[in-house]
Design a protein that fits this description.
The protein is mainly beta. It has a single domain, classed as TolB, C-terminal domain (Neuraminidase, 6 Propeller). The chain contains 4 helices and 30 strands. The chain has helices at 11-21, 111-123, 325-328, 441-448, and strands at residues 34-35, 66-67, 71-77, 83-88, 94-98, 133-138, 148-153, 162-165, 168-172, 176-181, 194-198, 212-214, 220-225, 244-249, 255-260, 264-270, 277-282, 293-298, 310-311, 315-316, 336-340, 344-349, 363-367, 380-384, 386-387, 390-391, 397-401, 414-419, 425-429, 434-440. Strands 1-21-18-17-16 form a 5-stranded antiparallel sheet, with no helix packed on it. Strands 2-27-24-23-22 form a 5-stranded antiparallel sheet, with no helix packed on it. A 4-stranded antiparallel sheet has the order 3-30-29-28. Helix 1 crosses helix 2. It is globular.
């Protein structure tokens, strides 16, 4: 009999017990790790990382998140199936990627640690099968609620990022960028798609989400590809073209690596004043409650941002071996930290005029929330003030909170953020299965009169 035959009855419960209580509480507020100069304490090196999962509960009745002073929040659409990402079409229709991790990842989360991680994800609401579709929501009467919905695209493969260039609609599946013909006002696309370019996937495909954004002239797409590990524990040979942003030529499908060292980039947007590409990045885990801060940063062509050999510039991570001092020496420092383990995913710069003028050009960020920090972090939507195309240096402002109840159950988890045709902020909530719409209180009052 092999030693693994009866090991699960002994080892797994012991691991779960230890993991459930592992880790001390942080002495630092989450915003100590935010801003242009975040606090970076010494790493905590433990055999078992802190685990603190907020169980997925969902909203009941008329419950909503809590909006900051001067804002109001209401449900734009409910009863969706794991809505993760948003895209607003020029005619005002809102597209929602209802999606989750692909089923065909046989090498991801193997072993005892992998077993526990799957259990933790299920507890957090991330264990549901992927619907693999994009749904169209339409608010025809302009009352701030979607009256109609239709299946815009189906039979996709863990879709995430979306972009429309003229009459061509692009989707980033987990393994490829696809293009489809689009007609203005269409409620669905039935024609077959065409593959533009393959994306890194395979039997591990640890960070499966692939986002994309088009250049202003539509000649290139920029696609996020997360790492296949936490800190290269699966080997750097499995990180080819990962932890990166790729640039794809829309005419030929040819691609190149645009920037690297970005552990898990998700949100993408062009900063309106500077024209620079920005991304929201999830940093590495298992370094303690207060390392390493997630961040937003401008992305430079050819830039290297540290992963896995260092973080926040030259702060060396000794876990990846052999070390690469040559890469550490050129690692760029991110522009603005967002707190450790906040799982900052959504990113959109505000271009509307429904919210007060001070928000124009600044960044809204959806923070999905931690699973490995005491106390919990994220589970909110924040605003980062900008001036002249750069963060002002002020701490982030909470815009939408209340996603966790007093018993630390997750009522919802914010993911993608977008600005609708009337200038309101939209937030995808993949545990609450809703799209929230955030407005100034003045519009909220006007819409009820």
């Amino acid at each position: 009999m092999s030693r693994w035959t009866d090991a699960p009855t002994v080892i797994i419960p012991t691991f779960l017990l230890l993991a459930a209580c592992a880790g001390s509480r942080s002495d630092l507020p989450i915003d100590a790790g935010s801003g242009p100069n975040p606090s970076l304490p010494q790493p905590e090196k433990k055999a078992i990382p802190t685990v603190n999962v907020a169980p997925a509960k969902g909203w009941s009745g008329a419950q909503t998140p809590a909006a900051a002073a001067g804002f109001a929040v209401a449900s734009y659409a409910a009863d969706l199936d794991h809505p993760r990402w948003l895209y607003v079409l020029p005619n005002g229709d809102v597209l929602v990627a209802e999606t989750n991790a692909p089923a065909d990842r046989p090498e991801d989360k193997k072993g005892i640690k992998g077993f526990f991680m799957k259990k933790a994800q299920a507890k957090a609401g991330a264990g549901v099968p992927s619907p693999n579709r994009i749904t169209l929501l339409r608010d025809a009467d302009g009352d701030g609620k979607a009256e109609t919905r239709s299946v815009f695209l189906k039979d996709l493969n863990s879709p995430f990022g979306m972009a429309l260039v003229h009459n061509t609609f692009y989707v980033a599946n987990t393994d490829a960028v696809m293009r489809f013909e689009y007609r203005d006002g269409a409620e669905s696309i039935s024609g077959p798609g065409t593959k533009v370019a393959d994306l890194p996937a395979g039997p591990i495909n640890h960070h499966w989400t692939k986002n994309l954004i088009a250049s202003a002239d539509g000649k290139h797409l920029y696609v996020t590809v997360g790492s296949n590990s936490n800190v290269a524990e699966n080997g750097m040979e499995n990180e080819e073209r990962r932890a990166a942003i790729l640039e794809i030529d829309t005419a030929t499908g040819a691609s190149r690596v645009f920037a690297t060292g970005l552990r898990n980039p998700n949100g993408l947007d062009w900063q309106p004043q500077s024209g620079a590409l920005w991304t929201a990045v999830n940093e590495r885990d298992e370094f303690g409650n207060d390392l390493v801060p997630d961040y937003i940063t401008s992305v430079k062509d050819g830039g290297f941002y540290g992963w896995p050999y260092s973080y926040y510039g030259s702060h060396v991570d000794e876990r990846p071996q052999p070390p690469r001092p040559d890469l550490v020496a050129k690692a760029l420092v991110p522009d603005y930290a967002l707190g450790s383990h906040t799982a900052s995913l959504g990113l959109v710069f505000y271009r509307g005029d429904q919210l007060p003028q001070r928000y124009r050009g600044g960044a809204f960020v959806g923070q999905h929330g931690s699973w490995n920090r005491q106390p919990l972090a994220g589970y909110r939507v924040i605003f980062v003030p900008f001036a002249n195309g750069r963060p002002t240096g002020a701490k982030p402002e909470e815009i939408l909170t209340g996603f966790v109840d007093k018993d630390e159950n997750a009522l919802g988890r914010p993911v993608g953020v977008a600005v609708d045709a009337r200038g309101a902020l939209l937030v995808a909530d993949d545990v609450g299965n809703r799209i929230w719409r955030v407005t100034s209180t003045q519009e909220a009052i006007s819409s009820r009169q």
